[in-house]
Amino acid sequence: LFLIQLLSFVPHPASASAGVTPSSSEKTAIVVASFGTTVPQALPSITNIVSKIKAAFPQTEVRLTFTSNIIRSVWKERRQDPEEWLQKGIPRESLEVQNIISTIGDLRDDGYETHVVQPTHMFFMEQSHDLQQYVSALGSIRTLKERWRPFKTIVMGRPALGMPGDRYSYHDDIKAVAKTLIDDAQQAKEQGAVLVYMGHGNEHWSTGIYGETQKTMQNMYPEINTYIGVVEGMPSLDDVLAVLGHADTAKVILKPFMIVAGDHAVNDMAGADPDSWRSRLTAAGYEVNPILEGLGSNDEFAQIFVDHIRDAATDSGIELN
Predict the structure, then answer these.
(1) Which residues of 123-145 are buried (b: 16+ CB within 10 A; e: fewer)?
(2) How far apart are CA 159 and CA 194, in angstroms?
(3) Which H or E run includes 195?
(4) d(CA 256, CA 198)
(5) Over the stretch 70-125, which tens digit does the pLDDT of each residue have?
(6) Are 150 and 138 in contact (CB under 8 A)?
(7) What pairs with residue 1 in β-bridges?
(8) Rounded distance, CA 168 to CA 267, Å?
(9) Could you tell me if 174 and 205 are in contact, meaning their C-beta atoms sit under 8 angstroms apart?
(10) pTM for the whole thing?
(11) Coil, strand, or helix at residue 13?
């Protein structure tokens, strides 16, 4: 009996699967894990991704969670007067958004034992790392009696630009993202402008992925000078400014390389503050055209997350309809 109990608590890898192949009769759900935004005008980029996922898997339950603790706390405060926000067109799902544990807990109470958690992050950095820890921990739960296990299978898909590992090449994921940005490149070409993206970046993880994405964009659209800088980490705006002088134009199209055109885009990128990217580029002599549109509003880009969900499900034997 002691041996049986001991073996019951041996940890199992759960970042991919809890170890049980689900049957077609089991209830399966997709959890769309977005960083989130506090800017109401930016929410359509998130809802567009959710809509594409629901359209691709119409018979599968799809729910939304925000991974940012700060953003969720703002929406929790706004729930004090829900009618004010609902009348402004804020989706109830966004207003009532919960954390990943509460979201999956509610799904489990509703009978869902198999889950695909799909982050809508740009790359595997801090937010995706922490999300994977939640997924791994929940999937590792082992009860003494098999029938009381809370989850059959719980897996996580990869972010837009991929993640570490040899199952899927992040180089291919970068190329897939670059292909969805053809309209941006075409717009820059028509305006005779340089294309500058602002990414979020991260101070705790390498942001070299942006450098490779920039190189991929330049190879794919050689007639356009494309540069990607980040708010946190490198390359910074200073790094972008250092190379902008090589372009033969003073026109700049400035766009967020983020899922949403949220607070960073509104203030840090296009704001009137002297330290904003728009202000600094203008002060450097460039004619700046800021476009406040998140990548999530791009239908082709949103489709990437549908593809990543399908990959994660297929790899784990999960049937999605």
Answers:
(1) bbbebbeebbebbbebbbebeee
(2) 27
(3) strand 194-201
(4) 5
(5) 999 999 999 999 999 999 999 999 999 999 999 999 999 999 999 999 999 999 98
(6) yes
(7) none
(8) 35
(9) no
(10) 0.90
(11) coil
